[in-house]
Amino acid sequence: MSWIDWIVLVAFLAWVVWDGVRRTRATKDIDGYFAAGRQIPWWAAGLSVMATQASAITIIGTTGQGHDGGMEFVQTYFGLPFAMVLLCIFFVPFFRRLPILTAYEWLEYRHGPATRTLASAVFLLSRCLAVGIVIYAPAVVVAAMTGMPRDLAILCIGVLTTLYTMLGGVSAVIWTDVKQMSVILLGLLLVLAILLVRVLSEIDFAALLEIAGASGRMNPLEVEPAHTGLIPRLQGADGPPSFWEEKYNLWSGLFGGMFLMLAYFGCDQSQVQRILTNPSVRESRMALLVSAFAKIPMQLVVLFIGVVLFVFHVLHPAPLLFRPEDRAVAATDPRVQRVAERYETSVAQRRAMALELAALPDGPRSDPARLAEYQQHVVGTYALRQEALSLLYANSKDRNDVNFVFPHFLLHHIPPVLLGLIIAAIFAAAMSSVDSALNSLAAATVVDFYRRWFRPRASESEALRVSRISTLLWGSLATGAALWLGGGGSVIEQINAIGSFFYGALLGTFTLGLVCRRAGEMAGVAAVLGGILSVLLVHQTLEVEFLWYNVIGCLAALGCGIGVAWLGPPGQRWQPGHQ
Amino acid sequence: MSDERPPPLGSWARTYTLVILLALATFLLLHWVTATWQIRLPR
């Protein structure tokens, strides 16, 4: 990375921090700090919603997924437009009917204080575990790209984001998100343009698609699941996998994805807070619908970058190992060197076969023998990469270098200035997710706990001061957790999995309040606990993909809540605690 | 349903229909992309 890239990166970071800090004057009370005085226009809140969801690892990891597995990951978002419509119809009007600052306040109005406190605690637990990863994962990649120490990259993301979020509140979060999202989109389109120029200088666009398709990468919609058995396997049992174990197909994307998006956008404070900042119900709906229109196209662009990058690597031999430190270790390991020699032969043959397939006038399917041989090389080169990684890492989870595929291309093929801009986009994506998480964690802490249980009569200035301290504490905790995560990669996957246990239960509890008139406090608590315990039970006993956990948790929470509601007396309405 | 019913859809019905139709059109397009170019790799 050249000095001019550093200038671009530092200028961007300074601009974001300055823009965030200058919003301090708009935060004179707690409503200004957590809801921006309900003055944010829909388009800004909509871009902030998208920026919050697009973490840096979404960009780095998703392009890597496109490179290694094709476009199938986009199916995860197929349920999003339908989820947004349902949220606009059923959730937004109720959230906006009361002067609430957190989604969980609505639960107190509908069920009672115990349900609110429990749901808010569940949110705090799941979000604080996740926010450390949102800092750590991109910091590792940014450190590898820039050469800066990993801990310095963590501190850079953590400290700068905490600084402007603490001072400027949600107003700073949203307006910096708007700028960060613009830089992210610009960076992505620039990379796609550069990649296409490089690839299309050798083959035409039709040949690009033919090679990508013959490599199994043009798979954005799989109607027929690879496994059709509907009875889930017990944990560790032999036998063929069931339908519920398949990660990406149309059905898991539509149904599992819809429940995930309903839970994320409807019950996670980091997203609900956006729709509480708009002046009206109409603007809140419009903010959500920005994602309904734009999210799938954006994910398609990110994944297509990965697919074009794969074709680029077919035409220009890619390294065996994408992580810089792996290449340094491999250079002195004779076992890896032997794999590298076989890999070089295989990628040369893969390139020759790809060009032959692309030259066929009727497409690759017209010559099945040549197609089969090419596909053997595609599978074989991937297997050699895995073999080399297995020689370096004993733990299978550490072998995954998918997050380093995209950065490798950036470092070696993107010209100066643009490289600085794209690394700034990666920083932007990390910061835009972290700032939302910190502000929402502070909102839940202060509104649902401090002002609800400890200091109900706290003045506005005291509440504002505590909110800033709370943001600082959560930021310090998240940054500290990210520094601690350096201990092991497998920890990250476990923590990511923990988050999936809670979402379905929260969605089920909110839905219970909307559909069941009798549901009171007992039913609300039973829904939260029943949903979480059901998912834990399924996780311990059955082989089921994480997307389905949201469906299971939601239905179990609804079932438990409705059951308790009908067994006991009708519930009482409560008034919001902080008013 | 709860005693708090959602407000009537009104003019939003057209917007929601547009969102759903666009989503379905995107799925059809992606299905065509898959059917035209995708060739599954051997397992």
List low-pLDDT spans of chain A: 574-579
Structural class of chain A: mainly alpha
DSSP strand (E) fraction of chain B?
under 5%
Shape of chain B: elongated
Strand content of chain A: under 5%
Write down the overall geometry of chain A: globular
Low-pLDDT ranges of chain B: none
What is the arithmetic mean of pLDDT of chain B?
86
| Largest β-sheet summary of chain A | none
Assembly state here?
heterodimer
Q: What order do the helices and strands of chain A follow?
A: HHHHHHHHHHHHHHHHHHHHH
How many individual β-strands of chain B? 0
From the N-terminal CA to the C-terminal CA of chain A, the straight-line distance is: 53 Å
Helical residues, percent of chain A: over 70%
| Radius of gyration of chain A using CA atoms only | 25 Å
Terminal-residue CA separation of chain B: 48 Å
**Fraction of helical residues of chain B:** 55-70%
Total of DSSP H or I helical runs spanning 4+ residues of chain B: 1
Number of helices of chain A: 21
- Rg calculated over all Cα atoms of chain B: 19 Å
Structural class of chain B: mainly alpha
